[in-house]
């Protein structure tokens, strides 16, 4: 099976730790990476790509120093290596305009306001990784039991 990664980014360590704790159940079949800045994410993505690994999902905070989550996800969406990568935005401070930009420009698939429900975030990431696997044409059979079965059935129809 291809090496699939989920990258989580937030400049506040306690928030990042909460996201990682919520996604802990997915570590049995996914690599969960954490970063504290957009620049760190971009560097990690370059490294993973160079190693032949895949970035299935990015879960990003919006308000961060340097580059916002929307700016990060927009930049990622313009990189042909990551055109299929799914994007999730977490924030407590995004404006209506930010949210629209995130959806229209960055291709954000889900938006969660802080505080979020851990189970909803986990199921969202599971569904998006399942979509990613099908979009990339990967063999899903070795990890079939971990995938979102609703997405699997929809994709097999």
From TrEMBL:
The modification 4-aspartylphosphate is found at residue 61. It comes from the Bacteria. Pfam families: Response_reg. InterPro entries: Bact_response_regulator, CheY-like_superfamily, Sig_transdc_resp-reg_receiver. Residues 5-129 form the Response regulatory domain. Keywords: Phosphoprotein. One of its GO terms (biological process) is phosphorelay signal transduction system. PANTHER family: RESPONSE REGULATORY DOMAIN-CONTAINING PROTEIN, STRESS RESPONSE REGULATOR PROTEIN 1. This is Response regulator. It comes from Vibrio gelatinilyticus.
